[in-house]
Design brief:
The chain is of the alpha+beta class. The protein contains 4 helices and 9 strands, in the order βααββββββββαα. The strands form 3 sheets. It has a 4-stranded antiparallel sheet with strand order 3-4-5-6, with no helix packed on it.
């Protein structure tokens, strides 16, 4: 469903995103996600590295500040206006206090996760005509953060690679970080095999 804003619902006493930032201390690894870090995602509860949070796609956050006892006190925290009425379909990632996500046409946003303040916006400046060949509007399914770069797949172009600090396109990095897509595809196939096997076992019993 089209929407014009990205919103975050936060506790009045302490926001979820502030908790994410506090739990994910910024150090030399800032924005540097790799296989080892994904494999040990449980040691960094404040991160949301991938669409499913971790390398196992658990979609589970171990953070506990928001719970059954205080969820009724959730309130509006901040919003970021994308200035478009086109579709939005990406799951935001939160890595080291920065929220990365993509909008329609593959526009990539980096926001301060605690305040919603934009850090940078990358616009691929692709042609509006791409919508003619799209099945479901010009939505984008999201980004990947990999070894200091942010990657995003576009409709009519190869995967783009931008720097996580300034949002500038890195043409050389696009090829150097091409392995990121392979890593996620590998995990996807592995999970698919696991789930297929589990379904077959349940069906057999």
């Amino acid at each position: 469903m089209p929407r014009t804003t990205l919103t975050a619902a936060l506790l009045s006493i302490s926001s979820l995103w502030t908790q994410l930032c506090a739990a994910g201390a910024i150090d030399d690894r800032y924005g540097n996600v790799d296989e080892a870090r994904l494999a040990h995602a449980s040691q960094e509860p404040g991160q949301w590295f991938t669409v499913g949070r971790d390398g196992d796609d658990t979609y589970y956050s171990p953070l506990h500040q928001i719970n059954a006892g205080n969820v009724a006190r959730l309130g509006f925290g901040w919003e970021y206006r994308t200035n478009t009425s086109r579709g939005m379909a990406a799951t935001p990632l939160v890595v080291d206090g920065v929220m990365y996500t993509s909008g329609n046409r593959g526009v990539v946003y980096a926001l301060d996760a605690a305040t919603g303040k934009p850090i940078w916006v990358f616009d691929p400046l692709n042609k509006a005509a791409i919508g003619r060949a799209a099945c479901c509007d010009v939505v984008n399914r999201g980004v990947a953060v990999w070894k200091g770069k942010v990657l995003c797949r576009l409709h009519e172009r190869p995967t783009i690679c931008v720097g996580r600090e300034d949002g500038r396109e890195d043409l050389a990095g696009r090829h150097a970080h091409g392995r990121a897509r392979g890593v996620f595809q590998h995990w996807g196939r592995h999970r698919l095999r696991e789930r297929s096997s589990s379904s077959a076992m349940r069906a057999a019993t």
